[in-house]
């Protein structure tokens, strides 16, 4: 606000007695300019706002569904399917494996919930008196949080919704991480990412309705310590980016209380923001059953093909549950489209391992045709492709052990995967591993989804024991523990030891890869096979023994999923009717 008289201006100068008087005057002048810009009108204001919207439209109107930016763009408005978003919950941490969270949610009985449309994220619901300043939106990886923020921004930029908002500034924590050692004021940070605001001479936001979006809190590498931080109230005062964000999120008594803040995160990182800094918690649940069908009908225009795919997914409960996750819908669509074209009366993939093997094969075919000048009927596993997959598998396993989903250049220094190779891999296997570039072309690498990383990690562990006899799950190699049987047993034990199910999906993939039928699909990548029917039988017996040991419901369900990946669950049900009857409810969650 502008000081109203001479004495007020004098007090402003006195408060800054220790500062350079020229600097104080400059701050006053900027405040005056902004006041005039807002209250007396600026002929360029509408033009500037339109320029800002045009830039955001260009940035968000196209999406690269699961594909790196080298892929073919798709218009967001054409493929966007409404997501199931609910109000309520807390910012408490949930560090369970995210597939387990999805499966647990699918078992809960339907109960009344407040459903929110994405355009109403800041709308005050009936019976609520206080305005909503800060929203925290939770959701598992691949559930659609980023696309949700992009659609929200695009609708505003296209004048479709929320036109009371004057400016919208979307950030990702991936971009902000790169500025960890830099210093900015809030105004300078906005100028840094949105240069049109600097060109327009905007040095204050108090008189605008502004929304800041921060996507991907779980990827934040800034030290967000809300209990020990400098208090900041001046939008033109420079500090570290972490202090800036803390004060902006606190808001009410700190930085720019008039702003609205939207933060998205995976559940495990939700507690980084103190509850008293959040006005509303929402959760993205992904696709409801009707929304799954809508997605596949948008993807496959031919009605009969869409019906066939939807029918197949409904027959497999594990696939149907996973399709709550939009990224898995995309993986499924990619695989089934290829299999329906190329199969000769064979079965469609029914298990997760089959689905992900087919997905990997599709990518190898694409590389052979697009980069190697081959045809779809050629052998798609070249020595170069095998090396790429081996390197990506090693990276996936190493980073999975560290709990990392995204990797900066510094994370890859201890790896065979040097930066140059990583860039090549992301350009070739664009739908498995991707490279993103920040504002100044800083490279960030990631697998397109946690489940892809877990599959690649399991493939690496499987290949390693077959090719070299090394069990990567044991720190000390024992002479009698280098067989596939011992690898499987140690993997089962480690998964059961985990309280939050972090190895659940990895275990399913690792066991599924041992099936002879799945190894046949990977012919050419696997130079030798390491499984025998005897190994599978011993693994199945070991799992059945563990099921009989009265595990928790979640652990038992995952063991049933493991039997399903080994194509043994139905056999188990028929061979052990007494034991099956004890677990009938749990088994029904799998098949």
Layout of secondary structure:
Elements: H1 6-15, H2 21-39, H3 45-60, E1 62-63, E2 74-75, H4 76-79, E3 85-87, H5 98-107, E4 114-115, E5 134-138, H6 145-157, E6 167-172, H7 173-177, E7 183-184, H8 186-193, H9 195-199, E8 210-215, E9 239-240, H10 241-250, E10 260-265, E11 280-284, H11 289-299, H12 303-315, H13 317-322, H14 326-342, H15 352-370, H16 383-401, E12 406-408, H17 419-428, E13 433-437, E14 443-447, H18 450-468, H19 484-497, H20 504-512, H21 516-521, H22 533-547, H23 553-565, H24 569-575, H25 577-582, H26 584-587
Parallel strand pairs: 5-10, 5-11, 6-8, 8-10
Antiparallel strand pairs: 1-2, 3-4, 3-11, 7-9, 12-14, 13-14
Helix pairs in contact: 3-6, 11-12, 14-15, 16-18, 18-20, 19-20, 19-22, 20-23, 22-23
Structure description:
The chain is α/β, with parallel strands linked by helices. The chain has three domains: 22-60 and 82-284, Rossmann fold; 61-73 and 294-342, no CATH class; 351-587, no CATH class. The chain contains 26 helices and 14 strands. It has helices at 6-15, 21-39, 45-60, 76-79, 98-107, 145-157, 173-177, 186-193, 195-199, 241-250, 289-299, 303-315, 317-322, 326-342, 352-370, 383-401, 419-428, 450-468, 484-497, 504-512, 516-521, 533-547, 553-565, 569-575, 577-582, 584-587; strands at residues 62-63, 74-75, 85-87, 114-115, 134-138, 167-172, 183-184, 210-215, 239-240, 260-265, 280-284, 406-408, 433-437, 443-447. The strands form four sheets. Strands 4-3-11-5-10-8-6 form a seven-stranded mixed beta sheet. Strands 12-14-13 form a three-stranded antiparallel beta sheet. β13 (433-437) and β14 form a beta hairpin. α16 crosses α18 (450-468) and α20 packs parallel to α23. The chain is globular. Keywords: ATP-binding, Cytoplasm, Leucine-rich repeat, Membrane, Nucleotide-binding, Repeat, Transmembrane, Transmembrane helix. One of its GO terms (cellular component) is cytoplasm. It holds the Pfam family FISNA.
